[in-house]
């Protein structure tokens, strides 16, 4: 067993869009793959490609984020045809754009191409409204919609007009946009989209001006507990009194009409959108896939604070699946939304809860131990199943689920442990390490894995060579331009071959002018270009089995690169949210002199950092053909900064780029409680006050003071915030350091919660009842033993005669062989159930520890005591705690605690405390992973 620890990190996690120039040449050398595998560039020169689909007739369709669909005749076609240009309708800013693409299984007999994109207009308006240039798309005012359409194919081009099937998905913020499209084995069309909410604040519809611009519910007041907007749109199908939106949901559709498909679980609803939904509660299901031979939907849901999820919708025609967002992230409650005390979450916690993810990985941990993948700024960004048979990969990959993370730049394989079985999270492999920013995965011709590299503008495939592997040609040339005559030094020593027998034994052939003549045959050489012109130099490397690979580079004698100069803003310029920042620049060229404004292009991007040296990129805006302009400084979490990039390109295509870093003005905000030591939420982070956060001046920050809480064994309820705000409210960061204090009042006697069937109160006057009669046979780690109860014990209306006591701090009234060392949220259908959890954690009965029972009192005053005495905490050799559960004849249950020190773990910050019914559908959960316990304070559960 391993000590399970949860990390609370303030981390914005969204799909990250690349900003690099398209790659030139076919070989790809950076990725690390298992032995026998090699990556190859299939297509390049694309502009931010997002999705790939393989047609049965051999054609390959690729979408570009800006709104173009391109088609290649086959995998050898270097020049695509523009099938359709939807850029006038597509809103291409931040994470918005043309993201989804699907072809019917019988294409082109069924001649439709399906697209899913962000429509450049608010609900009820006609695109283009924003023209891709919202001044600050992250201020909550740049409202757009999503659109699902089909385009009729006539050969390699679209014919007729776009047929709109669904237009909905009102989205307020520029991330968590539309997602993916797939056909299921049932012939139905499946679609996903994100919640369209803020990725830096706890958003329940209160943000923007006006607030709740998506009108969900129409005219609703966006204040807790009744708020239903923002991220809560992912739970909208549960609010039947108002129209249903499609944000954060999985849809199953009739591909001919866009209406709900027959057999959908809510097909009888009067609301047309409700009928379409088969799963909901997703944050940003940017990519999904279907398991071959089934209609199972496997989603990659991009997380916020700590967890990336892979979710499984087992039967889209069965009961609707609730994935839990924003009330849950990963398997646990999302604390910032929990602490906002929102009805849509509180009723979810008290009811059936979420369908837990199939697999999660933590933002601060590797997916596979020892892998060469980054961490922080995570974004699960592609999924594809490998065929169960007939593929070209080794048999171990049959039925494997490949999944990718754009931010980490890696692809993993989750392989089944048995033939035909489900992918096993315990059987993970770091398959493609340091990959080129994958945003879509697909298994294509030849049973090979393909991925779309949005940052580099390429489509790549990963081939398996069971025998000899081809080499990779890597060419270096210095200089590549300059006055003629131009002498260029060429170096091919970076070329490699993965086969050990070929190491150091490659042969080299250079053709410097593309005339088919071998001009040199050494690893390094030089060539003198006497006259002006543009030449393609080619290096071909060949291994010992006569397998070759080539690479090229363009040489331009007589042409010198331009020099770009970024005039304003000057170095050291700082900005605040909402400020207008102006910029200007110019460029000169050795041949052309001063370049015109048409030769200049600009990019603004946000670098969002987990730490100083761990950042990821959000594109903000682009300008072309302009010598000057302006932008509104965006709202964003800190640490982050802006990069303004100017590129000058001369008439021959040579370019020079300069980048200016623009740091924000920041301020330290301190959050405190009176008395100190209570819990507060700020944005995605939850902590024990007092604590200080550095934020950008003018930024939007949501704060929550949950209640009631305990400190020093005393319960407290919120009285007021020092700024006069509600328990959950928005703070616009001032310019000067400020302290915000939540004042609490003692609420002794106030309950620690209630649920149908039980109430809970805290009591500091209950005596400790030692259990000295019987020592149970529990020793060491992860043990369970059965005990006969001295009297019938009732729990949630059922009566029990026996109990099973676990060394891990819980007791179940149903037979279980699982000691359950890893705690979780309540209720849960996973065992143990019919249980009480005085301190559910990974515990150890050490030599000086014991678990004991006793029967005290007589008649109606009898008490049955189970005491965990001097119990150890797994991972610590010295820590010891004592706690007990006391059962009364009248049904009262009391949890008592002593010997707790002041550390978080002994107070419960990795433990679950509560009681739960037999079905795992109802529970009174006092705390999960919260340091709420104190010596001498009991929790009393009364039926």
TrEMBL record:
<dbReference type="Pfam" id="PF18911">
    <property type="entry name" value="PKD_4"/>
</dbReference>
<keyword id="KW-0732">Signal</keyword>
<feature type="signal peptide">
    <location>
        <begin position="1"/>
        <end position="28"/>
    </location>
</feature>
<dbReference type="InterPro" id="IPR013783">
    <property type="entry name" value="Ig-like_fold"/>
</dbReference>
<dbReference type="InterPro" id="IPR012938">
    <property type="entry name" value="Glc/Sorbosone_DH"/>
</dbReference>
<dbReference type="InterPro" id="IPR011041">
    <property type="entry name" value="Quinoprot_gluc/sorb_DH_b-prop"/>
</dbReference>
<dbReference type="InterPro" id="IPR011042">
    <property type="entry name" value="6-blade_b-propeller_TolB-like"/>
</dbReference>
<protein>
    <submittedName>
        <fullName>PQQ-dependent sugar dehydrogenase</fullName>
    </submittedName>
</protein>
<dbReference type="InterPro" id="IPR022409">
    <property type="entry name" value="PKD/Chitinase_dom"/>
</dbReference>
<dbReference type="InterPro" id="IPR035986">
    <property type="entry name" value="PKD_dom_sf"/>
</dbReference>
<feature type="domain" description="PKD">
    <location>
        <begin position="471"/>
        <end position="556"/>
    </location>
</feature>
<dbReference type="Pfam" id="PF07995">
    <property type="entry name" value="GSDH"/>
</dbReference>
<dbReference type="InterPro" id="IPR000601">
    <property type="entry name" value="PKD_dom"/>
</dbReference>
<feature type="region of interest" description="Disordered">
    <location>
        <begin position="212"/>
        <end position="242"/>
    </location>
</feature>
